[in-house]
Structures are given as structure tokens and as C-alpha cells.
Automatic annotation (TrEMBL):
Domain of life: Bacteria
Gene3D superfamilies: 3.10.450.50
Name under which the protein is recorded: UPF0225 protein HD594_002032
Family: Belongs to the UPF0225 family.
Endpoints of the signal sequence: none
Record-linked SUPFAM superfamilies: NTF2-like, Sec-C motif
Domain YchJ-like middle NTF2-like: 37-131
Length: 134
């Protein structure tokens, strides 16, 4: 349990909006199972923001681009994820792109993060490389 962040049970809907339950979607990936696609990794990273799992974000960020500090604000509530576009990022691909809109709410307002994220397959796993925010 992470102080100030929502808890999600194994049989509850996954925060990523896939339609699956957490225990069959992002839960195992947050627990250490490697994502099979860039989209799965992106969805798990969104869920990490929802539940306050900064270690998952750090561990899935490419070592060449990970920031020194990954902190999450429990005052920000992530309220929904929309996948806009995907390019490659499947098993056998070396690169992938996932464009998404993530909605948030915090004291005093709401907003949206619109990002086109780049992922790379390296060392037998997918990594978040970076993203262009628009």
C-alpha cells in the first residue's frame, strides 16, 4: 500500500481501461512479469502512476534516459487513459510507439497529458525510451 494513492484489488477493473481485471492485466507486470508489447508496458506505466508505483516507472525506463528522480504526487488522481495510436511494438519488433491521452484531476482542476511515447526492445525486454508531449 502506498500512502495517499488508491489501492486496486486483483479482481477490480484495471485502471488502464483495457476492460480486464487488474490481476490479469497490469497487476502481473507491476509485480515483475515482463510486458510482451510496448502497449502493455505503456498501460502498466499509466497504472503505476495511478497506484503510486514509482519503482515500476524507474525499472521500465530505459537506463540511458531515466531521470535521477522519479516522484509521484499523491494529490494527482489519474482518471482515465485513451490510446490514440500504436505503431509496431509487438513481439519481434525492435521499436514501438504508443500515443495516448491520460486524464488527471487535482485540487483546483483537471487536465490531460497527450504524449507520443517511444519504446525500444533491448536486452530481452521492452523499455520506455522517451515521449513527445503535445
Amino acid at each position: 500500500m502506498r500512502a495517499g494513492f488508491p489501492q486496486v484489488g486483483e479482481d477490480q477493473p484495471c485502471p488502464c481501461g483495457s476492460g480486464a481485471v487488474f490481476g490479469a492485466c497490469c497487476g502481473p507486470i507491476l509485480g515483475g512479469v515482463l510486458a510482451e508489447t510496448a502497449l502493455e508496458l505503456m498501460r502498466s506505466r499509466y497504472t503505476a502512476f495511478v497506484v503510486g508505483d514509482a519503482s515500476h516507472l524507474r525499472e521500465t525506463w530505459h537506463p540511458g534516459t531515466v531521470p535521477d528522480d522519479v516522484r509521484l504526487d499523491p494529490g494527482t488522481r489519474w482518471t482515465g487513459l485513451e490510446i490514440v495510436d500504436t505503431v509496431d511494438g509487438r513481439p519481434g519488433d525492435k521499436r514501438g510507439i504508443v500515443e495516448f491521452r491520460a486524464h488527471w484531476r487535482e485540487r483546483g482542476g483537471t487536465g490531460e497529458l497527450h504524449e507520443r511515447s517511444r519504446f525500444v526492445w533491448q536486452s530481452g525486454r521492452w523499455w520506455y525510451l522517451d515521449g513527445r508531449v503535445s
